[in-house]
Design goal:
- With 404 residues, this protein is of the alpha/beta class.
- It folds into 2 domains: 144 residues, 2-Layer Sandwich (Nucleotidyltransferase, domain 5), CATH 3.30.420.40; 189 residues, Nucleotidyltransferase, domain 5 (2-Layer Sandwich).
- Helices cover 38% and strands 19% of the residues.
- The chain is built from 14 helices and 14 strands.
- α1 packs across α3, α10 packs across α11 and α11 crosses α13.
């Protein structure tokens, strides 16, 4: 069964074609600058094809994806009929969706209803869904939600201490994100350790330009750092993370700015970029630190301290800890930050092997042999999770003789 995985943004569209029978990546690519001038990148095996193509909208982007996948020169299938289903990454599913769903009018409405709490993502996810429906008529589509993995959190973990009517009327609560990543790496951690995930307490650290940390006990999410939106939690590339809420009105009054302007400051001008004044990319931050930039050093110290605090809190919340997993761009590749985060946590039984920790982008246990808590680096694979979730939905429906 071949599954096309789609992740649509405002002016971009990432895709992967995965053979879900053997979990093999057949091709992947990226459509950029949609609605501007169009740039198309298509990868097969170790070959990359770059083409400038007009892409006035997401529909033409999907057309180009199908043409590339079926191309005689660099295609991997003979026709679109070989694609069994399309799996879409959808960021916010609210309380409506606790798992992957076959997309129909009801699901479309549910995703649309979540636009007000995810205005930066859900509209673009819907655009990708509609584009695929137009170009790939008859091919079933499945929505896989970033938030669904965290729907197992208990109410005392996801509720905010606001008047309860805000939850009843507006469903204001913690939802969490990066669910497919946390689900994938926790599952891989259990396999690497040779243990049943239902018997483990794992903290997964998805550290990238957007970062979140999740406490996973007995295979399910029991708490996570992001909240109603991806803004809450630790500081990130350009997001401020958790701050005193009173700061918001204070700054708005002092500067005379609108809600939208304040939201832009917190989401796009804060975090590592805002503190360092240099960049949101830790590679640039490292160079700045070497040049003696004190604010870059401060940003790094703040980031590591905040991650460390969450590890301590989640260890307490779960009543112990078996493993920590570092994943995503920073988590997988930045050995300096991993070391800083784990430094001083030896009383938990966390001890890094400094030589193993130098490895980048590998699936590896980087703990000392005697460490009680295992620390792992695991490259995430959200697209594979989406493909497998899509495959499971399609197979269940076929078993039930549902007409797709």
């Amino acid at each position: 069964m071949k599954i096309l995985v789609i992740n649509a943004g405002s002016s971009s569209l990432k895709y992967q074609l995965i053979d879900a029978k053997n979990n093999t990546l057949l091709a992947k690519g990226l459509c950029e600058r949609i609605g501007i001038d169009g740039r198309f990148k298509h990868n097969v095996a170790d070959k990359e094809y770059l083409v400038d193509l007009p892409m006035p909208n997401h529909t033409t982007a999907i057309e180009n994806v199908v043409k590339a996948l079926t191309s005689r020169e660099y295609g991997v299938i003979d026709s679109m009929s070989e694609i069994s289903a399309v799996g879409h990454r959808v960021v916010h599913g609210g309380e409506k969706f606790s798992g992957a769903m076959l997309i129909d009018d009801v699901v479309i409405k549910g995703i649309s209803d979540c636009v007000e709490i995810s205005p930066l993502h859900n509209p673009h996810n819907l655009t990708g869904i509609r584009a695929c429906a137009e170009i790939m008529k008859g091919v079933p589509q499945v929505a896989v939600f970033d938030t669904s993995f965290h729907q197992t959190m208990p109410d005392y973990a996801y509720m905010y201490a606001l008047p309860y009517e805000f939850y009843e009327k507006y469903r204001i609560r913690r939802y969490g994100f990066h669910g497919t990543s946390h689900k994938y790496v926790s599952g891989r951690a259990a396999k690497i350790l040779g243990k049943d995930i239902n018997d483990l307490k794992i903290i997964t650290c998805h550290l990238g330009n957007g970062s979140s940390i999740t406490a996973i006990k007995d295979g399910i999410s029991v708490d996570t750092s992001m909240g109603l939106t991806p803004l809450e939690g630790i500081m990130m590339g350009t997001r401020c993370g958790s701050i005193d809420p009173a700061i918001i009105s204070f700054i708005m009054e002092k500067k005379g700015i609108t809600v939208k302007q304040m939201d832009d400051i917190m989401n796009k001008k804060s975090g590592i970029l805002g503190v360092s004044g240099v960049s949101s990319d830790f590679r640039d931050i490292e160079i700045a630190i070497e040049q003696g930039n004190e604010r870059a050093h401060l940003a790094t110290e703040m980031f590591c301290y905040q991650v460390k605090k969450y590890i301590g809190a989640y260890c307490a919340a779960m009543g112990g800890l078996d493993a920590i997993v570092f994943t995503a761009g920073i988590g997988e590749n930045n050995s300096i930050l991993r070391n800083k985060i784990c430094e001083g946590l030896d009383f938990f039984g966390i001890e890094l092997d400094l030589e193993l920790n130098k490895q980048r982008g590998k699936e590896l246990d980087i703990s000392t042999k005697t460490a009680k808590v295992r620390v792992l680096t695991i490259p995430t694979n959200e697209e594979l999770v989406i493909a497998l979730d899509t495959k499971n939905i399609i197979e269940k429906l076929q078993e039930a003789n549902y007409v797709l």
